[in-house]
Amino acid sequence: MEPLDLVLKICDIICTQASFKRGVRRIFALVTEALSLEGICLFMPGQVYFWPEGLDTTPYEEVLKGGEKKGFMVFALPHGKGPRGDLVVKKGDLSPNDELLLQVVAGQLSQFLRNLQSKRELKVGSRLLLDLYSAGRELGSTLDREEMGKKLAYFAKRFSRASYVSVTLFDAQGNRTFSVGETKEKGDLIQYYNEDFFKRRVVSLESLNGKWGVMELYLPQKVSLSRYQKRVIHILAELAGTFLENIALYERLKSLVDDREKRIRFLSILYQVGNAYRMTSELKKRALLSLRALTDPHKGLGLHQAFLFLFHFSAGCLKGLMGISWVDLSPWGEGDWEIDEEYLRKVESSPAFVDIKGVTLPDYLSKELEKGEILYLSDAVEYLPFCERGKFYVGLPLMSGETLVGALVVGKEVPLEAEEMQFLTMFSHQLALALESARLQETLKKTSKDLEEAQKRLFHSEKLATLGELAARVAHDLKNPLVAIGGFARRLHSKMADDCPDKVYTRIILKEVEEAEKILSDVLGYSKVPRLKKSLTDINALLDDVLFLYAEELRDRNIIVVKKLDRTLPAVYVDPPQIRQVFMNLISNALQAIGKKGAITVSTSRVVKDGRNMVKIEVS
């Protein structure tokens, strides 16, 4: 049984039961079942009430006398002007909520006793007692302060024949929450109270644990309250005080239950989206899952706007990835958390999807987010085109360790509550890890693909190298007989007379042999695998040598060479012939691009890249 239902049932017993013994047994039976107690006893002067039936009360009496209290707990009945009593319960372990509930039960038992005493004293006024009973049932039937105040004012006016009744109620902190008996024109009744026409009586609405309001009665001067009416009004005030305390306890318990349900809901969202992250390693799908967790009104937090930014390390800024902004209809539907390509296309084509790839967060916001600070964006509409005026926006950093990997911007019509901010903080940590993991997996896939392509190229080059070696052997084997054929052909050609008709054939043989020798030389040249022979080389000197080779051509073309060489550069390990060829290619390309009359700038400088010292050569 829920604590609130238990409190209401006990209140109903207090209001309806005329026998204290039967009422206590019913209350004990309810409490024992609701809290799973082993036993419960109420000790009063000359009387003991216990449950369940046949319970041995000796250990409970020993506890009151100072005996072993392990497994027992004692709650003194708040007595005030009523009889004293002690409530002793036995249970292995009691939670704070159980203790709070038992304190309420002790107070209600005390109130039960005092109510019964009052009822016995008012037997002579049976008609008023019946009215009071009816009022108690009405007052105890509501957990709404405003309704309670109106009913109390009605019954007080009915029992006292007052012309006006004013009821002012307070909450647990003493703040005024409701007042009946006010008018817009005249304000509080006390402001226009005239003692020439009315007598004012003030009754405090109290319980043993506090003051919950004030009731003011304005009686005509000629009307006086009888002794029984006074008693009824005071009992009515005590009942109202008890019920108002119950309302305060109900509100407190409801707040605790609501907070617990919120925490369970938030943890459930984190758990479900965490499982969904594990079903995909794609960055885009994980980003969409995170936006669903924030904006889905059924399975998520239910925000109307959420936008995701990723930190681009090459540019050093936060760039937009995607966002969701909906008003009447969310784009998510009622399905589970799995996202396939069809679902992805459906969401991206919905009016709620916002493409923010062209949006970059201002640098000053990025710097603040890099510190791990949560930002309240009061002027978001000034620099974020997707934000709307009148809404409250918050920026949350996505930190992987001490590194900023992204940011979330969420918007709501009202400021976010503390519990929501706590959830968003936990969610941002989870999302940062998911995005960083997805990014690393994508990098790993790309690296694996590049490695696979490199392996294919290596395999192909090995096949070409093998083919080259075979071609070299064939060319070498063909070259010897080809040389002999060429030598004999030249010999025959030289011995023939110029007018010999066969000399044309020897000339053709010699020409074809030269072509064949050239082809074999080219094959042997291509089949050789180049080998790097590195040595310490002065890059500036090498450039000077290459430019000297092109000096005549540069002069003929009327082209000026501008040298910007850093003469402090150290010697570097390179293959001089191959680097020389690279420089010659660069100069040749520049000459072809310029044609005639122009300038070529050649510069060298020292740079640092990825923590390494390098030499930079530019030809422009």
Report on the architecture of this protein.
- This protein is an alpha+beta fold and 620 residues long.
- Helix content is 51%, strand content 20%.
- The strands form five sheets. A six-stranded antiparallel sheet has the order 11-10-9-14-13-12, with helices on both faces.
- The longest helix is centred in the last third of the chain and has 78 residues, at 418-495.
- The radius of gyration is 48 Å and the shape is elongated.
- It starts with a helix and ends with a strand.
Strand count, sense and closure of the main sheet?
A: 6 strands, antiparallel
- Give the overall silhouette: elongated
Please mark out the parts with pLDDT under 50 across 5 or more consecutive residues, or reply none: 182-192
- What strand line-up does the widest sheet have? 11-10-9-14-13-12
Tally of helical segments: 15
The amount of helix comes to: 40-55%
How many β strands by DSSP?
19
Helix/strand layout:
Blueprint: H1 3-16, H2 20-35, E1 39-44, E2 47-51, H3 58-64, E3 72-76, E4 86-90, H4 96-121, H5 126-140, H6 145-160, E5 164-170, E6 176-180, E7 198-207, E8 210-220, H7 227-278, H8 283-295, E9 305-312, E10 317-325, H9 341-348, E11 353-354, H10 363-370, E12 375-376, E13 392-400, E14 403-412, H11 418-495, H12 503-527, E15 535-537, H13 539-549, H14 551-557, E16 559-564, E17 572-574, H15 576-594, E18 598-609, E19 612-619
Parallel strand pairs: 16-18
Antiparallel strand pairs: 1-2, 1-4, 3-4, 5-6, 5-8, 7-8, 9-10, 9-14, 10-11, 12-13, 13-14, 15-17, 18-19
Helix pairs in contact: 1-2, 1-4, 1-5, 1-7, 2-4, 4-7, 5-6, 5-7, 6-7, 7-8, 7-11, 8-11, 11-12, 13-15
